[in-house]
Amino acid sequence: MDELIFFINRVLISGTVLGSIYALGAIGITLVFGILRFAHFAHGDMMTMGAFIGFCIASILAGMGIATPIPIAFVVLPLAMVVTAAIALGIDKGFYAPLRRRGVPSVTLLIASIGVTLMMQGLIRLFFGSGTRSLYINETKEIFRIDMSAFGGSRPISITEPQVLMIAVTVVLVLALHFFLTRSRLGKAMRAMSDNAALAQVSGINTALVVRVTWIIAGSLACVAGTMLALDVALMPDLAFNIVLPIFAAAIVGGLGHVYGAIVGGFLIAFAETLAVFNWTSILRPLTTWLPFDLPANLALVPTEYKLTVAFVILVITLLARPTGIFKGISS
Amino acid sequence: MALIELKHVVGGYGGAPILNGVNIAIEQSDIGVIVGPNGAGKSTTLKAIFGLLKVTGGTIEFGGEDVANSLPDKLVPKGLSFVPQEKNVFTSMTVEENLEMGAFTRTDDFRDTMRWVYDMFPVLAEKRRQPAGELSGGQRQMVAMGRALMSKPKLLMLDEPSAGLSPRYVIEIFETIVRVNKEGVGILMVEQNARQALAFASKGFVLASGQNRFTGTGPELIADPEVAKSFLGG
């Protein structure tokens, strides 16, 4: 029983949290790709930017002596989302839109987004330095412990309050996005443009408006994902740049342009990573007597520092076996 | 006054012009058919009207208003609709969602229009919840026309509606076009099946090298020995 509890604590809970972060990031990448047909490399830094904006607003509130019952990062999240969405719109207007008007190939936009990445990282370092900060301002994580003694477990299942909130926020946002895309006029227009941009234009759909809505959604979700990552790890300038590869892998594995694919891909990559670095010895220990060999102290498939390779391996396998992703994505 | 009137339209994709002075005039009661050899600028003419390429000379008037180089999101609310030849449905979306996208520019209640489209294409009503990509070629063409009709257009433009369809569907699509016209929608279409299409055309335009060669009613053009010899395959 204790082994199962350990598994739940180490794999199920942290995998779900990581999966939520990847999914929200990958949704943004997949939406931008679907509508604008380019790989938005700066998405990771949009996430970091969002987390720092949340940090600024939270610091101001905390400085005013305002205490909140839940971690303040969640309270300021809606405002931070609005600001990040506005920045995303500004970046598009300033850098990508002029290039699109000239009808440049999508690789030019990709390179431009790498430029935006460098610029944003520079700006963040300029204002906040390169050190590590905590998004928990004068706060401690509350930990919920679910007593499992009734089931014969000596240890509790423990989940922190931020983890519960992260999962809840992700569920709410994904459902909201689902209803937006399937029920609203503008959401359907977004799917239409992702499906066939030329026909969307011919139908009289205001494609400029759809592009703006795409950036608003991608930017605000990036803010949430970045904030959650900062809560899960720590706030630093290269916070989300390090996970650009896994979230791109998630979007591609799920099928580019496909929102549900991005969600599935996000959780798939997150759980694969979590399982790969999980120390299986802790679970296999009760079987020691039956095993013909001694268990090593650490039996992980991949050492933690090579975690990033997991996303790579899944990406390569997907591209070999099913190039358009799990859900049939756009194969441009 | 004609519903749409093109006078000496010149235009192209930025290089040498493809249209070198096209003249077309259509009433709302008309079925206009543009025929001509490959590369004559037939589809290009429709695209020029719909703002999909640059018009550098001449005038395009729709309902008495100059609409040259206007974009589709301005043209559709004015009563102009276009069915492209290829990729003319949203394959990942249901039939009903495809129709809704045709009504994107409308802010009023379009349920009546949807009922009208379903009356015209009963098979679409049956498959309203099915992704358009799963339908047959003929049914897709119906979805594409239905989508274009959802904006309640005064003029419906079709680019080779019969392309790639089996003969049975070609006749069905042509019959539908005539029916749509009787409901008060002007038609301007490009057709490869020239003889068949001209048979029911009230206005026919033979284009070659981006210019009008012959203009007349459909039956007149079919009867003209020169048109028959050069453009209708004898």
Automatic annotation (TrEMBL), chain A:
Species of origin: Devosia epidermidihirudinis
GO molecular function, one term: L-leucine transmembrane transporter activity
Protein name in UniProt: Branched-chain amino acid ABC transporter permease
A Pfam family this chain is assigned to: BPD_transp_2
Cell location: Cell membrane
The keyword tRNA processing is assigned to this record: no
Family: Belongs to the binding-protein-dependent transport system permease family. LivHM subfamily.
GO terms for biological process, alphabetical: D-alanine transmembrane transport; L-alanine transport; L-isoleucine import across plasma membrane
Keyword field: Amino-acid transport, Cell inner membrane, Cell membrane, Membrane, Transmembrane, Transmembrane helix, Transport
Topological relation to the membrane, as annotated: Multi-pass membrane protein
InterPro entries hit by this protein: ABC_transp_permease, BCAA_transport_permease
Transmembrane segments: 12-36, 48-66, 72-91, 103-128, 164-181, 209-231, 243-260, 267-288, 308-327
Gene Ontology cellular component list: plasma membrane
Principal location listed in the UniProt entry: membrane
From TrEMBL, chain B:
Alphabetical list of InterPro entries matching this protein: AAA+_ATPase, ABC_transporter-like_ATP-bd, ABC_transporter-like_CS, BCAA_Transport_ATP-bd_LivF, P-loop_NTPase
One Gene Ontology term of the molecular function aspect: ATP binding
Lineage top rank: taxon: Bacteria
Pfam families reported in the protein's UniProt record: ABC_tran
Domain annotation ABC transporter: ranges: 4-234
CDD domains linked: ABC_TM1139_LivF_branched
UniProt keyword Transport present: yes
GO terms classed as biological process: L-amino acid transport
PROSITE patterns: ABC_TRANSPORTER_1 (PS00211), ABC_TRANSPORTER_2 (PS50893)
Transport in keyword set: yes
Keywords carried by this UniProt record: Amino-acid transport, ATP-binding, Nucleotide-binding, Transport
PANTHER family associated with the record: HIGH-AFFINITY BRANCHED-CHAIN AMINO ACID TRANSPORT ATP-BINDING PROTEIN LIVF
Family note: Belongs to the ABC transporter superfamily.
Name of protein: Branched-chain amino acid ABC transporter ATPase
Source organism of the structure: Devosia epidermidihirudinis
